């Protein structure tokens, strides 16, 4: 490996890259300050198990680029779409049929899969000079030069066209609601260079689906004040949730981010992280409850959705070990289903209660008992 002459006060990265599949050695020398031994990172090995192992070798780098083998991000992008679809279903006139809810949800999942992949590709294009310096990201396809920036740009265009096709399968009003989100998709990676709060920009991006269910089911946010209030509260609630879970995610890279000059909320509030997480959870829950009030939800929503969110968020914040990378990843990955799944189940129960007229039956029984 080429030697690097120490320079006083400067942090020097020396990357030995004889080939995109070789071992990567990252050394950091701060003259006369600390003596760190070189960090030897594993070499790239093609996948031998899981979905990617069944794909042609030429396709694997592109599947890795869109994180096809790591679908957690897709779930986090998908859940706000589910939430808004179920809320909108109860506010539609007449109430949306189960077939419409299921069909709309399926289209949203397809769109989430495609657009999350596009977002990952754009992110890796922005970070192609930073990823080689971070242990978790140095083997990403662009960072290891398995995919060229030019090929990644073309691939991004193909993904965006596919996403457009999915979008056009929904009512046309959805096109106008979805288009502004592309600005956030493109600028999020840049936010990591200029602010310690890129998670907030990510929240604005990943939460966009919290509004999309309304036009998808024919609920006009411009003329329906109650629906607009519900959508705004739901969107803001999901922004808080995104900042919360991505703050935990950011703790996995906190040391490498500091060395590479990447900004994050985890670095800015490292000493008071759990206090910040608690505040974010309180904001999320308050806004989620406000969504239910604006939408006229019943007890199934408040107990099922809000109650499960409070329980799962509280448990995660209490038990997550922020200095343990594997533990942070476990809570980030499973938190999507603990909290997102709980809210979705609560909303599904509320929708079914209203669609099947359970609340109406209870009101009739109360009236009979009073008589």
UniProtKB/TrEMBL annotation:
Recorded topology in the membrane: Multi-pass membrane protein
Keyword terms, alphabetized: Isoprene biosynthesis, Membrane, Mitochondrion, Mitochondrion inner membrane, Transferase, Transmembrane, Transmembrane helix, Ubiquinone biosynthesis
Regions crossing the membrane: 75-94, 106-126, 200-219, 225-245, 275-294, 300-318
Pathway: Cofactor biosynthesis; ubiquinone biosynthesis; Secondary metabolite biosynthesis; terpenoid biosynthesis
Record localization: Membrane; Mitochondrion inner membrane
Enzyme Commission number: 2.5.1.39
Keyword Disulfide bond: no
Cofactor annotation: Mg(2+)
Top EC class, one word: transferase
InterPro entries: HB_polyprenyltransferase-like (IPR006370), Prenyltransferase (IPR039653), UbiA_prenyltransferase (IPR000537), UbiA_prenylTrfase_CS (IPR030470), UbiA_sf (IPR044878)
Catalysed reactions, as listed in the record: an all-trans-polyprenyl diphosphate + 4-hydroxybenzoate = a 4-hydroxy-3-(all-trans-polyprenyl)benzoate + diphosphate
Function: Catalyzes the prenylation of para-hydroxybenzoate (PHB) with an all-trans polyprenyl group. Mediates the second step in the final reaction sequence of coenzyme Q (CoQ) biosynthesis, which is the condensation of the polyisoprenoid side chain with PHB, generating the first membrane-bound Q intermediate.
Family: Belongs to the UbiA prenyltransferase family.
Identification of the protein by name: 4-hydroxybenzoate polyprenyltransferase, mitochondrial
Source organism: Paraconiothyrium brasiliense
């Amino acid at each position: 490996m080429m030697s690097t002459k120490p320079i006083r006060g400067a942090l020097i990265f020396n990357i030995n890259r004889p080939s995109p599949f070789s071992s990567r050695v990252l050394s950091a020398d701060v003259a006369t300050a600390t003596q760190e031994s070189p960090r030897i990172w594993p070499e790239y090995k093609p996948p031998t198990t899981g979905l990617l192992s069944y794909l042609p070798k030429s396709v694997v780098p592109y599947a890795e680029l869109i994180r096809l083998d790591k679908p957690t991000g897709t779930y986090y992008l998908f859940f706000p779409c589910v939430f808004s679809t179920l809320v909108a279903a109860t506010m539609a006139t007449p109430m949306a049929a189960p077939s419409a809810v299921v069909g709309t949800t399926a289209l949203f999942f397809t769109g989430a899969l495609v657009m999350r992949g596009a977002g990952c590709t754009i992110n890796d294009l922005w970070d192609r000079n930073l990823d080689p310096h971070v242990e978790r990201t140095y083997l990403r396809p662009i960072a290891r030069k398995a995919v060229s920036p030019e090929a990644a740009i073309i691939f991004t265009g193909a993904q965006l066209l596919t996403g457009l096709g999915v979008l056009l399968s929904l009512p046309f009003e959805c096109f106008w609601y979805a288009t502004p989100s592309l600005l956030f998709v493109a600028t999020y990676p840049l936010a990591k260079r200029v602010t310690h709060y890129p998670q907030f920009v990510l929240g604005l991006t990943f939460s966009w689906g919290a509004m999309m269910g309304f036009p998808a089911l024919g609920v006009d946010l411009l003329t329906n004040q109650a629906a607009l209030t519900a959508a705004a509260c739901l969107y803001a609630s999901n922004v808080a949730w995104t900042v919360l879970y991505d703050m935990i995610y950011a703790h996995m890279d906190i040391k490498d981010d500091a060395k590479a000059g990447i900004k994050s909320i985890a670095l800015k509030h490292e000493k008071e992280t759990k206090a910040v997480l608690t505040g974010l959870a309180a904001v999320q829950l308050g806004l989620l409850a406000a969504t239910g009030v604006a939408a006229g939800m019943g007890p199934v929503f408040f107990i099922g959705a809000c109650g499960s969110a409070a329980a799962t968020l509280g448990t995660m914040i209490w038990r997550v070990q922020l200095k343990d990378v594997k533990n942070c990843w476990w809570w980030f990955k499973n938190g999507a289903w603990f909290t997102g799944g709980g809210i979705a189940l609560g909303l599904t129960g509320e929708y079914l209660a209203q669609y099947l007229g359970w609340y109406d039956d209870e009101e009739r029984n109360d009236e009979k008992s009073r008589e």
